[in-house]
Amino acid sequence: MERNYTTQMDAARKGIVTPELKAVAEKEYMTVETLMPLVASGKVVIPANRLHTCLNPEGVGSMLRTKINVNLGVSRDCKDYDVEMQKVLSAVNMGAEAIMDLSSHGNTQPFRQKLTRECPAMIGTVPVYDSVIHYQRDLATLSAQDFIDVVRLHAQDGVDFVTLHCGITRKTIDQIRKHKRKMNIVSRGGSLVFAWMCMTGQENPFYEYYDEILDICRAYDVTISLGDACRPGCLADATDVCQIEELVRLGELTKRAWEKDVQVMVEGPGHVPMDQIAANMKVQQTICMGAPFYVLGPLVTDIAPGYDHITSAIGGAIAAMNGAAFLCYVTPAEHLALPNVEDVKQGIIASKIAAHAADIAKGIPHARDIDDKMGDARRALDWEGQWACAIDPETAKAIRDDRSPEHDDTCSMCGKFCAVRSMNKALSGEYIDIL
Fold first, then answer.
1. Domain total for the chain?
2. pLDDT at residue 301 tops 90
3. Which of 75, 185, 198, 183 has the alpha carbon at shortest distance from 139?
4. Given a cut of 90, is residue 358 above it in pLDDT?
5. Same domain for 16 and 136
């Protein structure tokens, strides 16, 4: 069937019900009539490159279920693509809605194409990483057009969204030097753009040639994820002048994208104290006019290397409850190493717990159904029923099996002192044996 629209936003504005919009509406327990104006206005995005034909589409927006992104990809020190594919399959099986390929070594294109050919999750990339690798030339030798051409290449490879650090300009160089941040710029892509501007004396190509990028994204229906180059990398830098000034520019860029029917997400912090998270969400929603907010964490303390999946889950739950739509997972390896398969699992589970807790707090339709089923199973001491409700049933079952109780209707913590067992017997008029 001939496609008579360019992007999901364009279709929604024309009143066309795309297969992707219909699928998302069903998943979110919404009517297409309710969802369509949200996509048309940019408050919901459905990242769906027209070349990613095996995609199982998802919607991203604060009024929908909170979605999870998993960062993967090889580096010079860890370059086994088979291991990365194992992580991809594990992530998809655990319910991650998006995979970002952040590879920074070797021939990245075959892996990227394999993802868009075989993976049903949304696929995202950061083209600026790939620019140096693709051309096999050092950063300062690349031209502005080289960067734009890699964006086009990723779109042609079928990726659904691209993170582009469009919001920093040459003015940012002066700001960073003047305001003396504790951690400067911690965004890898942002630092590359900053370094390129410093070395060449030119303006940020992703900002200067933004209209050309929009034309590419419109042609393939690639969603732009506006990267926050100045996101805080420690609590001391949270919500500072550099972060907010960049956010204002991202709001302007969001409006320009919408004028060309290009879908937009806006990326956010970073390291943020708990008491500033809600305010950060509110400021973004106002400045970026309700565009979906995609946050890394936020991490609520700086002192927990090895446990940053926990610090980010705390922040992610607060952020999502207050309007963030998309959580980028953080693993125990954050700040330390490329995550292995077990790190990926722990990061996904922590993020899924945060997202689910926030969805319950927001009143997302049917979000609490599984919790109510768990309550019923626990009251009945139905262990198989509990495994069916658990976010990670294998781990839960392994813990119980490792410390199995004397009696099946108890656990090794309470034994016959079990409150549930005692109440069930008391309410049914049975004798309660303890000793």
1. 2
2. yes
3. 198
4. yes
5. yes
Are 331 and 398 members of one domain? Answer: no
Residue 118 lies in a domain: yes
Instruction: Quick: pLDDT tens for 239-250.
Output: 999 999 999 999
Q: Residues 388-403, buried b or exposed e (16+ Cβ, 10 A)?
A: ebeebeeeeeeeeeee
For residue 283 the two structure tokens come to 């400021």
Contact 97, 64 (CB under 8 A): no
Same structural domain, 104 and 251: yes
**Residues 342, 248 share a domain:** yes
**C-alpha closest to that of 174 among 249, 245, 266, 250:** 245
Domain assignment present for 18: yes
Instruction: Report the C-alpha gap between 158 and 390 in whole angstroms.
Output: 34
Nearest to 261 by CA among 5, 16, 2: 5
Q: pLDDT at residue 1 above 60?
A: no
Instruction: Please check whether residues 400 and 263 belong to one and the same domain.
Output: no
As a whole-number percent, the residues of the chain with pLDDT over 90 amount to: 89
Q: Calculate mean pLDDT across residues 174-182.
A: 90
**pLDDT above 90 for 139:** yes
pLDDT value of residue 79:
72
The answer on 377 and 299 residing in a single domain is: no
Q: Which of 323, 347, 362 is the last residue of a domain?
A: 362
Among 343, 362, 381, where does a domain finish?
362
End-to-end CA distance of the chain: 73
Specify which residues 327 forms β-bridges with: 68, 295
**Residue at 216 is within a domain:** yes
DSSP string, 388-430: HH-SSHHHHHHHHHHT--SSTTS-TTTGGG-HHHHHHHHHTT-
Tokens found for residue 42: 């940019």
Tokens 């369509």 belong to which residue? Answer: 36
In terms of domains, do 358 and 387 share one? Answer: no
Domain that holds residue 141: 8-362
CA atoms within 13 A on the CB side of 102: 17
Q: Examine the domain organization and report whether 123 and 188 are in the same domain.
A: yes
Q: Rounded to the nearest 5°, which phi and psi values hold at 429?
A: 80, 20
> Residue 48 pLDDT > 80, yes or no?
yes
- Those residues whose C-beta lies under 8 Å from the C-beta of residue 90, and which sit 6 or more positions away, are 341, 344, 345
| pTM assigned to the model | 0.95
